[in-house]
Amino acid sequence: MFGLFFQGLLQCLSPLTLLYILAGVLWGIVGGAIPGISASVAMSLMLPFTYNMDPLLSLPMLAAVYVGAEYGGSIPAILIKTPGTGAAAATVLDGYELNKKGQGGKALCISLYSGVLGGMVSVLVLVAITIPLADFALKFGPTEYFWIALMGLSVVGAVSGDNFWKGLIGAVFGLLLAVVGMDSFTSTQRLTFGINRLADGLELIPVMVGLFAVSEVLRQAYKKEIAHGVRQKFKMTWPTFKELRQVTPIVLICGAIGAVVGALPGAGATIASWIAYSETKMLCRNNETFGTGDIRGIAAPESANNAVPAGGLIPLLALGVPGSNSTAILMAGFTIAGISCGPLLFTNNPEIPYKLMASMFVAQIVLAAVGLLVLRPLILLTSVNKVYLASAILVFAAVGAFSTLNDVYASWLVLLFGIIGFLLKRFGFPVPAVVLGFVLGELVEGNMRRAFQLSSSVSIFFSSTIDIVMILIIILSASFPLISKKIADRRKKAQ
């Protein structure tokens, strides 16, 4: 097992393979950094170039795009509060706050360090337990996925700040947004108000870009923070060795979490990042600084979402089942090369899956080198006059949204949700809670209804050991912010 992996590593160190991996990582970073060009879109744009290519070159290149895109989404999330991918939404909470303090370089370094180390951990997990973990993933049915989604929603307390109830209302609003469109079970329209364009539902990228990016521009304009001549001076800041040592245990644990969540079909990097953020905040001491620029709040989601690509290979390679859009495109790369995924792949062509795993490990090293090279130029962007920066954000938001549907309708959605996001911030409702509800809404509703199709009894939701374990984790995660707040209040009174 590890012998074949080391053989793959040696093959990946050949100049030609390294060149293809470098190209994949570079394109992935660009794709992930542009809102609207997600990992799956970046991979699909690269797919036509793989025709007539050697699969030992084309598949590592596609995997490298996947790796680069998951990191690339954190760059605009930290610098301009615009997550390039859905998975980077959790990074906004502390990454952008740290950037506002003039420490954008440190935030990007922590993101890079966490992503690379978390990705490496997940690759090693992938090599060691591909087949056993794939068998475990097969035990997940509708009820288990339902509880996974609720586990993600238990993060609401962690992202709501001091007002839990406003966070809860925001999450419910997000859940309502998720049900807009055609009901996949009954083929009836819901909450479309007779508008046919809403029949397909609301796209994630326009909603997210509007709520995070455009709303922030509107907020700054309202508070007159955007003015001619106003320019923030930033210098390159680096994390200390003590800070890197502080986040390393978090990175290792969250990397393993990302690998496991990535192995579950339909879960993905967004859920992994929110779960990692919530559990880290729950377990860490002095967690009241989360959401104000805490490096631990960057390390946890970045490690988890960068670990998902390797985790996503587990069901693809072992069972031939793609668990996400990105792994489906990777599976298309296998098909173009005339290779079938599944258990026989390890018997008939073992060099291919292990070289693919090795290429993801090497891609992390390439990502670290490229990331360090572009850090300083990226920081220079934050010292641009706020008028120009705000204008550029609006343009990129509109264009990025347009690219998701190739329709100006998506750009109007961005503006609409920009206004909604501004109003939410104006009245103290946490935007991340809304995004969380919207992202997880379909997973919650769809799996709950599938479970009731299997059984009309509520007892089906408590029928397995996995269900019970997840319920206990959810209760602990949901109650922890309230308990910790009461403990903090008692300490203040005692003083």
Written description of the protein model:
There is one protein chain. The protein has 495 residues and is mostly helical. Helices cover 73% and strands 1% of the residues. It has helices at residues 2-12, 15-33, 39-46, 55-72, 74-80, 89-100, 104-137, 142-153, 156-159, 164-178, 204-222, 241-262, 268-283, 296-319, 325-336, 343-348, 351-381, 386-405, 408-426, 431-454, 465-494, and strands at 181-182, 189-190. A two-stranded antiparallel ribbon has the order 1-2. Strand 1 and strand 2 (189-190) form a beta hairpin.
Give the gist of this structure.
This protein is mainly α. The protein contains 21 helices and two strands.
Layout of helices and strands:
Blueprint: H1 2-12, H2 15-33, H3 39-46, H4 55-72, H5 74-80, H6 89-100, H7 104-137, H8 142-153, H9 156-159, H10 164-178, E1 181-182, E2 189-190, H11 204-222, H12 241-262, H13 268-283, H14 296-319, H15 325-336, H16 343-348, H17 351-381, H18 386-405, H19 408-426, H20 431-454, H21 465-494
Antiparallel strand pairs: 1-2
Helix pairs in contact: 1-17, 2-3, 2-4, 2-17, 3-4, 3-15, 4-14, 4-15, 4-17, 5-6, 5-7, 6-7, 6-14, 7-12, 7-14, 7-17, 8-20, 8-21, 10-20, 11-18, 11-19, 11-20, 12-13, 12-14, 13-14, 14-15, 18-19
